[in-house]
Structure to design on (47 residues):
C-alpha cells in the first residue's frame, strides 16, 4: 500500500488534513476496509 502524503491526501479527499492523526486514522480505515474485502473473498470465493 502506498503511503499518502498530506498533499496527496488533500487531493484525494478534497479537504485539508490538519493533523497526522487524521492521516493515520484514514489510512487505518483503508487497511481495515481492504482486510475485510480480502476476508470476504476468502470466505466467499468467486466461482
Amino acid at each position: 500500500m502506498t503511503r499518502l502524503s498530506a498533499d496527496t491526501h488533500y487531493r484525494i479527499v478534497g479537504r485539508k488534513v490538519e493533523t497526522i492523526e487524521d492521516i493515520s486514522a484514514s489510512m487505518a480505515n483503508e487497511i481495515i476496509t481492504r482486510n475485510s474485502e480480502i476476508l470476504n473473498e476468502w470466505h466467499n470465493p468467486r466461482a
Observations:
- The mean pLDDT is 72.
- The helical segments are 6-13, 20-43.
